[in-house]
Write a structure and sequence with these properties.
The chain is of the alpha/beta class. The chain is about 45% helix and about 20% strand. It has 2 domains: about 130 residues, 3-Layer(aba) Sandwich (Rossmann fold); about 170 residues, Lactate dehydrogenase/glycoside hydrolase, family 4, C-terminal (L-2-Hydroxyisocaproate Dehydrogenase, Chain A, domain 2, Alpha-Beta Complex), CATH 3.90.110.10. The structure holds 1,4-dihydronicotinamide adenine dinucleotide and oxaloacetate ion. Its EC number is 1.1.1.37.
């Protein structure tokens, strides 16, 4: 399989490329050909990892495109503050992917604002099926699993089915209402084991929402290794399938499920099989969740309008 990584000379790219090469993304038995794109000003770093600065060469024949290229936010910024720089890149690269990628190429947008960049890519590449354009919220999902595992002092692999709803931003809604933990006496609901709704409805949510900002504050750079690792998780589950009874969070094109306006790239709980994702249906939604799901949808509608105004 041919895998495109844009922004390959950057922080995330530097961590991501060797993970893909050693099979973390597509499995140990899957041969991969890496297409690594960056821009001419990254010339020095290019000597380290990057194969090309030609977008057409980079996109030609790729089966998987991991779009990391763009500008990261700095301390004190919201992710949408990098909007004007990044959406124009996604408009331009949409055309290159549409014209040159392999049919059925799977696209994962990582660069922020991730949902809105993905939406712009989708809208300017009309012949790429909408189900093939996704954005990364798996990092938030993994952060939520991590918070629960620390709180309960259990292994992170024993916690499952948290959900990130909505935008990869501080309005995202990390939801534990359907999450469980594997224990010696079977699977137990996270709410029952934590037994502290005040923490689950308060500090837990804000910690996950603000984790990206906390890392920037501490490191003066945004998360890179965890972002690369989550990008591998996202593509691996999409291509190779999710485990029975497990769902994961992916930013996908809304079909109106759960009352989320169609036409936004919104993070939903999904299962994957045969290379296709499917939104988990029928989960009961309580009043608090409804409000938080609507607030993050509202932000995405506003971002969409802002993105179009940046492209005028
Ligand atoms: N969705 C998520 O969970 C996360 C998203 N991010 C976002 O990922 C993006 C990349 O982050 P880092 O690797 O830390 O940034 P970075 O600045 O270290 O690397 C970005 C790379 O993209 C390159 N680039 C810029 N314009 C390009 C273009 N038109 N085509 C190809 N390459 C281009 C730059 O030269 C640079 O090498 C940022 O937007 C950041 O905010 C970061 C962490 C998590
Ligand atoms: O917060 C940022 O700007 C980088 C990012 O998306 C994350 O770490 O979740």
């Amino acid at each position: 399989m041919r895998v495109l990584v844009t922004g390959a000379a950057g922080q995330i790219g530097y961590a991501l490329v060797p993970m893909i090469a050693r099979g973390v993304m597509l499995g140990a038995d899957q041969p991969v050909i890496l297409h690594m794109l960056d821009i001419p000003p990254a010339a020095e770093a290019l000597n380290g990892v990057v194969a090309t600065t030609d977008v057409v060469e980079a996109c030609t024949g790729v089966n998987v495109a991991v779009m990391v290229g763009g500008f990261p936010r700095k301390e004190g910024m919201e992710r949408k503050d990098v909007m004007s720089k990044n959406v124009s890149i996604y408009k331009a690269q949409a055309s290159a992917l549409e014209a040159h990628a392999a049919p059925n190429c799977k696209v994962l947008v990582v660069a922020n604002p991730a949902n809105t960049n993905a939406l712009i890519l989708k809208e300017f590449a009309p012949s790429i099926p909408e189900r093939n354009v996704t954005c990364l919220t798996r990092l938030d999902h993994n952060r939520a699993l991590g918070q629960i595992s620390e709180r309960l002092n259990v292994q992170v692999c024993d916690v499952k089915n948290v959900i990130i709803w909505g935008n990869h931003s501080s309005t995202q809604y990390p939801d534990v209402n359907h999450a469980t933990v594997k224990t010696s006496s079977g699977e137990k609901p996270v709410r029952e084991l934590v037994a502290d709704d005040e923490w689950l409805n308060g500090e837990f949510i804000t910690t996950v929402q603000q984790r990206g900002a906390a890392i920037i504050k501490a490191r003066k750079l945004s998360s890179a290794l965890s972002a690369a690792s989550s990008a591998c998780d996202h593509i691996r589950d999409w291509v190779l399938g999710t485990a029975e009874g497990t769902f994961v969070s992916m930013g996908v094109y809304s079909d109106g499920s759960y009352g989320v306006p169609a036409g936004l790239i919104y993070s939903f709980p999904v299962t994957c099989s045969g290379g296709e994702w499917k939104i988990v249906q029928g989960l009961p939604i309580d009043e608090l969740s409804r409000k938080k799901m609507d607030a993050t949808a509202q932000e995405l509608s506003e971002e969409k309008a802002l993105a179009y105004s940046c492209l005028e």
